[in-house]
Specification:
about 220 residues, mainly alpha, Serine Threonine Protein Phosphatase 5, Tetratricopeptide repeat, about 65% helix, globular, disordered C terminus
């Protein structure tokens, strides 16, 4: 599947993997957020993706339909900043993908649409110590990979690697958006939890793209 367009089964695997990794890293995200915010990032994301996972046994015609479901679920189930930001990101990505499978170029375009949705909703820029600092390098790397003839899975991997570097860069930045901005210089030295969760979600997408077909069949254990 790695060299082919990503289909609905991939999207289903992605959200299952995302729910798993968010649950696994819930405490880490809570602790990161507690240091500079209100500490609810991990709990909120876990609740949202658990709810989305429960809807994956429904029938979906295309990857975009799965992502639209996730968007609507996050917006309705997740409080704080994460719900609107990630809800908008998934909705913009779903709209970008449309009704077909996702080629490498489609994946890169969907990631760009997701990033633009986050920027539109949160009004943050690169350097503000937010998830945009992970999303923007991810988008740039994805575009470069797609232009170079990479497969969809390779595009996602390039995006995830760049997002990791971007998330690490927030350690040295002073937060200029969100609750963390209230800390001023004291926010320096703390990694942004939204940037970290962005990496987790992109890694889950990579894992789903490189998993053998059929792994998503059957009900959840």
């Amino acid at each position: 599947m790695a060299g082919d367009a990503l289909d609905t089964a991939w999207a289903v695997r992605w959200i299952r993997a995302a729910a798993d990794t968010v649950a696994e890293h819930r405490a880490e995200l809570v602790n990161l957020d507690r240091a500079i915010g209100d500490g609810d990032h991990g709990e909120n994301l876990d609740r949202g993706f658990t709810a989305a996972r429960e809807k994956l046994d429904d029938e979906y015609a295309a990857p975009g339909a799965v992502l639209k479901m996730v968007a609507m679920t996050l917006m309705s189930k997740v409080g704080g900043a994460a719900g609107p930001l990630y809800g908008t990101a998934f909705l913009r990505a779903a709209t970008s993908l449309g009704d077909g499978d996702a080629s490498a170029e489609d994946v890169a375009a969907a990631l760009a649409a997701a990033r633009d949705g986050v920027v539109s909703r949160g009004k943050a820029e690169v350097g503000d110590a937010t998830m945009v600092d992970a999303w923007t390098p991810a988008v740039d790397a994805a575009a470069q990979a797609a232009a170079g003839g990479a497969t969809p899975a390779e595009v996602l991997a390039a995006a995830a690697d760049a997002a990791q570097t971007g998330a690490e860069s927030t350690d040295a930045l002073q937060a200029r958006k969100g609750r963390a901005s209230y800390l001023g210089e004291r926010s320096v030295g703390h990694r942004d939890p939204g940037a970290v969760s962005t990496v987790l979600l992109l890694r889950a997408a990579v894992d789903a793209a490189t998993t053998a077909d059929g792994s998503d069949e059957g009900p959840d254990a």
